[in-house]
Amino acid sequence: MADRALGFLSASGVGWMDVLDILLVAFIIYELLRFVRGTHAVQIAVGVLVLALLYWVSTLFNLQTVNWLLRNFLPVLMFGIIVIFQSEFRKALAHLGRTPFFGTAAKHQKEEVVDEVVLAATTLSSQRTGAIMAVEREIGLRSYIETGITLDAELTYDLLVNVFHPATPLHDGAVIIQGNRVAAAACFLPLTVNPVLSRTLGSRHRAAIGLSEDTDTVAVVVSEETGAISLVEAGQIRRGLDGPALRRALLLALGLGGSRPAEGKSAPAPTGGDS
Description:
The structure is a single chain. An 8-stranded mixed sheet has the order 2-4-3-1-5-6-7-8, sandwiched between helices. Helix 3 (41-60) runs antiparallel to helix 4 (64-84) and helix 6 packs across helix 8. A hairpin with a 6-residue loop joins strand 5 (218-222) and strand 6. It is an alpha+beta fold. The protein has 2 domains: 2-97, no CATH class; 103-266, DNA integrity scanning protein, DisA, N-terminal domain (YojJ-like (1, 3-Layer(aba) Sandwich). The chain has helices spanning 2-12, 16-36, 41-60, 64-84, 86-98, 103-127, 142-145, 157-163, 203-214, 243-253, and strands spanning 131-135, 149-154, 174-178, 181-187, 218-222, 229-233, 236-239, 265-266. It has 10 helices and 8 strands.
């Protein structure tokens, strides 16, 4: 098989450097698509593509006026995009710099995130402090991040506990976690409209369920009234988790193996009101 591949490359005039070049370009495009997914940049990219297509059509059919306008407008548009989205470009470069190239690095990072979230959840539970911590997975949450206060801070137990302290202005809303960073706090989430869920579920749990129905997010919810810890994933809520059970469930949800804990129950069947 290897000999055939080498023979094909030699016959087609394609060298290993060409293959490496293609793979690098594919990797850059992939990371770019991952970064812009779930953001307004997608609509802007579509608009730029439409203008580029219009420019090609004007050239093909010799539409001189349209071609002249687009030929002079597109360079200005490119410069304007760079100026307007300079902060996004900085974040994209930072994201690329944080991208782990080895599976062990990614696994270690996820385990650290899980440990910080579990420690914060158990602490908040003991204090009966309400909280929603949403962990982004494959589907981007940029549209929800824009509803809150951008933090882009390193994820730590101390930060999470302080954000949800009732005396802080950021406690009323959800924290969204991207990788090992707290992207934003005080974010508004969509409430679920599932009619099967019990009416005793509070707004925090309904918001977490609503987000998990629209995206592949996994969310940790701490009830303000009972201190109960819940895990929400794919529209399902598992309640009454302790620290070890929550850690196992989060590791499994983030693709780090393990088995689902027996603790906790699936909604809808809560016996008491939660907020």
